[in-house]
Design brief:
It is built from ten helices and seven strands. It has about 425 residues and is of the alpha+beta class.
């Protein structure tokens, strides 16, 4: 499974914060507007609905409602285009300008005492720490303080002092909370960085130990047979065959490490599965003969095609076949079966070996996990990864002292 990048994590967190922000914003805004324009005038008989005070006021308020409502689809569009970070600024800018214009129109040309304000403004201030963004916090806090200061000069009213003091008080509290959030996040990030660094070092050490052990065996064999050739001073085909097998082992280990360390994009082509498997079986046939193992190849059709990359598929089958042979130290029979159905094409490799405990089967695709005493676990892990890249899957069934069946499933290509 691919891990998320830092940018993707930030976008996901911003989306979550935006979702909560938008829900609360519309809830508070709608509730306050209904109360201010309809419920409060009913409670105060002498009062008048603010929205109906003049035609200009009514038109401005209706336009403001339409603009606020249109922010919702705009926010959805910005989110889908991976621009969620601008949504909070968009809502603040529109609300700030709308409320400022509305209040200017309300108090222009009259001597009414300034008595405006909205709980939505406090909501913006109190919600700011959730975004963990100092710039946004400063824009919100300074913006509303400037708005009340301007309205105080515009209406020549000292009544703005109280909302300014209230905003400064709440802004101070939210600033402290925001700083605590930032400090906590920095501490968590540093802890994860240290843990990630230590984990990488441990991983590298584990790879180095496993690879060193795995490569040392074939190198030792090669050295021994080269020395034997020199002592006998004549060409021995038996020694050469074993040396070639050991070189092939080294090649497999290097290929496994390349897939593990640097995954590459697949170049999917039509692969003839029977030829692919025949090649792998021929490759291990000498080793199977030496270990008194018979490989039976069973398939329904002469040609079976799947979509994949020939080299990587051979690597998968080679790893599974070698595991099957290593599970049969006393010899025996391995069956390779191929069946193609409407949705899936399946390759089954069945051995009659020592088997795998049921509780260990889910661990086979993990790095460095092996049921063999000297195994690295790289081969099967790489095989699982390659099959997954081919949009397939591997199923394992096993019983102790009875045998193991590896079923490798690939999607059957659609006939054009």
């Amino acid at each position: 499974m691919r891990s998320l990048s830092r940018e993707e994590i930030d976008i996901n967190e911003e989306k979550k914060a935006n979702k909560l922000f938008i829900i609360l914003f519309y809830f508070i805004y709608i509730f306050f507007e209904v109360y201010r324009n309809f419920i409060r005038p009913l409670l105060d008989i002498a009062g008048e609905e603010i929205i109906f005070r003049s035609q200009t006021m009514m038109a401005t308020t209706i336009v403001f409602y339409i603009v606020i409502t249109s922010l919702l689809p705009i926010s959805v569009w910005l989110t889908r285009n991976k621009r969620p970070f601008s949504i909070k600024y968009l809502y603040f800018s529109v609300f700030f300008l709308g409320i400022l214009v509305t209040e200017i129109l309300r108090y222009y040309g009259n001597s009414d005492t300034y008595a405006s304000g909205s709980p939505v403004e406090l909501f913006f201030v109190l919600f700011a720490p959730i975004y963990v963004n100092r710039v946004y916090y400063l824009v919100v806090a300074i913006g509303f303080v400037c708005k009340y200061s301007f309205m105080g000069f515009f209406t020549l009213s000292p009544e703005v002092t109280f909302p300014i003091v209230l905003l400064v008080l709440f802004s101070t509290v939210t600033f402290i909370i925001l700083n605590r959030f930032k400090t906590y996040l920095r501490t968590v990030e540093k802890s994860y960085e240290r843990a990630g660094h230590n984990e990488k070092l441990a991983f590298i050490g584990q790879i180095a130990t496993s690879v060193t052990h795995e490569i040392k065996n074939p190198l030792t064999s090669l050295k021994g047979f080269v020395q034997l050739q020199e002592l006998e001073q004549h060409y021995n085909p038996k020694y050469s065959q074993i040396m070639l097998q050991e070189l092939e082992r080294l090649n497999i280990i290097v290929n496994d490490l390349m897939v593990l360390g640097k995954p590459q994009a697949l170049k999917l082509k039509s692969v003839e599965l029977i030829n692919c498997l025949s090649y792998v079986i021929n490759l291990v046939q000498q080793q199977a003969d030496n270990n008194h193992i018979t490989i039976c190849f069973d398939y329904d059709e002469k040609q079976i095609y799947i979509s994949g990359e020939d080299v990587r598929l051979k690597q998968v089958f080679l790893n599974v076949l070698k595991n099957a042979m290593e599970a049969m130290p006393d010899g025996g029979e391995i069956k390779v079966k191929v069946r193609q159905e409407e949705k899936w094409t399946t390759v089954q490799i069945v051995d009659r070996g020592i088997g795998i405990p049921e509780e260990e089967i889910p661990n086979l695709e993990k790095a460095f996990y092996s049921t063999k005493e000297n195994g690295t676990g790289l081969g099967l892990m790489v095989s699982y990864q390659i099959v997954e890249e081919h949009r397939g899957r591997i199923d394992v069934e096993s019983e102790i002292d009875i045998g193991t069946t590896f079923s490798v499933h690939f999607p059957t290509p659609k006939i054009m």
